[in-house]
Amino acid sequence: MKIAIIGAGNLGLSIAKGVLHSNGATTMYLTKRNTSEIKDFEKYGNVTVTSDNKEAIQNSDTLIFAVQPGHFSSILEEMKDLLTENHVIISTITGFSISKIEEIIGADKHIVRSMPNTAISVGNSMTCICSNELGKKRIDLAKAIFNRMGHTLEIPEEQMQAATVICASGIAFWMRLIRATTQGAIQLGFDAKEAQELAMHTCNGAASLLIESGNHPEEEIDRVTTPKGCTIEGLNEMEHQGLSSSLIRGIVTSFEKISKIRKG
Ligand SMILES: NC(=O)C1=CN([C@@H]2O[C@H](COP(=O)(O)OP(=O)(O)OC[C@H]3O[C@@H](n4cnc5c(N)ncnc54)[C@H](OP(=O)(O)O)[C@@H]3O)[C@@H](O)[C@H]2O)C=CC1
Ligand SMILES: O=C(O)[C@@H]1CCC=N1
């Protein structure tokens, strides 16, 4: 597997770390215009850092694009003559449809749209994925790449916008909940480091319980809420203050913003 990550920024570098973590590539190119901050990656023998997208594309078979939405069209325009049917072209770009990619590079390419999140750097991304007609022949390969770095779900392209909010932005939403829990723990007397440790591991435990049991969250909540106990008292107060409602409204607001990004 010869991977090029075009746009080694926040997400691109997270993917690069995930690839290294999972030994997922024989060679890897990382590109950005200003390469000085990421030259360090060349200490991994099979990694080349360059600002030359052309070199990266010509020497790779799997191309992962992770540039900002406003840069993607012009990069595809510049590179389209180098893209061949031997490439698997994976876009992570928010709000950029497969048909728009096909308009620039043609439908005769294997095109996959993916939505990973930054936890890919530690091999624990939730990645949603879909493809163009020809890309269906390579979707299993793309899934295999992302499955090495977490969990993958194939979805219809129409759901990609929603997946972006729940899975990609979702990392930030969960981080904020962990931070708020940490602040609560500090107020109750733990020092900051311990407070974060308690918050992170409890969050991890809650997710693991659901993943391993397959249970609905409310079933697990019922096991925690002792009648007349402290948990239900706290939960009810959180709901009086709008916990679920504010999360849902935030999710819908993020979703609506993507439509604006799509329109440029
Ligand atoms: N951040 C996240 O968690 C997620 C992001 N995404 C999507 O991934 C994409 C990247 O987001 P994010 O990583 O946050 O953005 P960043 O701005 O952090 O990364 C984009 C990178 O692209 C580089 N770049 C710009 N122009 C070129 C070019 N011509 N050739 C090569 N590289 C170039 C930039 O570096 P330089 O300026 O030095 O060239 C920059 O490092 C977006 O489309 C976003 O919607 C999707 C899911 C999650
Ligand atoms: O905030 C953004 O627009 C990108 C897409 C999802 C995560 N980061």
TrEMBL record:
Where in the numbering of this chain does the Pyrroline-5-carboxylate reductase catalytic N-terminal domain appear?
A: 2-93
What SUPFAM superfamilies does this protein's entry cite? Answer: 6-phosphogluconate dehydrogenase C-terminal domain-like, NAD(P)-binding Rossmann-fold domains
Would I find Amino-acid biosynthesis among this entry's keywords? yes
For biological process, the GO terms are: L-proline biosynthetic process
- HAMAP family the record matches: P5C_reductase
Principal localization reads cytoplasm
The record's GO CC annotations read: cytoplasm
- Annotated GO MF terms: pyrroline-5-carboxylate reductase activity
- Coiled-coil regions listed: none
Family membership noted in the UniProt record = Belongs to the pyrroline-5-carboxylate reductase family.
Domain Pyrroline-5-carboxylate reductase dimerisation, first and last residues per copy: 157-259
UniProt keyword terms in alphabetical order: Amino-acid biosynthesis, Cytoplasm, NADP, Oxidoreductase, Proline biosynthesis
- Quote the subcellular location field of this record: Cytoplasm
Q: Which organism is it from?
A: Flagellimonas pacifica
Q: What is this protein called?
A: Pyrroline-5-carboxylate reductase
Q: Which gene encodes it?
A: proC
Q: Give the catalytic activity.
A: L-proline + NAD(+) = (S)-1-pyrroline-5-carboxylate + NADH + 2 H(+); L-proline + NADP(+) = (S)-1-pyrroline-5-carboxylate + NADPH + 2 H(+)
Superkingdom of origin: Bacteria
Q: State its role.
A: Catalyzes the reduction of 1-pyrroline-5-carboxylate (PCA) to L-proline.
Which residues hold NADPH?
N53
**Pfam families according to UniProt:** F420_oxidored, P5CR_dimer
Listed pathway(s): Amino-acid biosynthesis; L-proline biosynthesis; L-proline from L-glutamate 5-semialdehyde: step 1/1
InterPro entries xref list? 6-PGluconate_DH-like_C_sf, NAD(P)-bd_dom_sf, P5C_Rdtase_cat_N, P5CR_dimer, Pyrroline-COOH_reductase
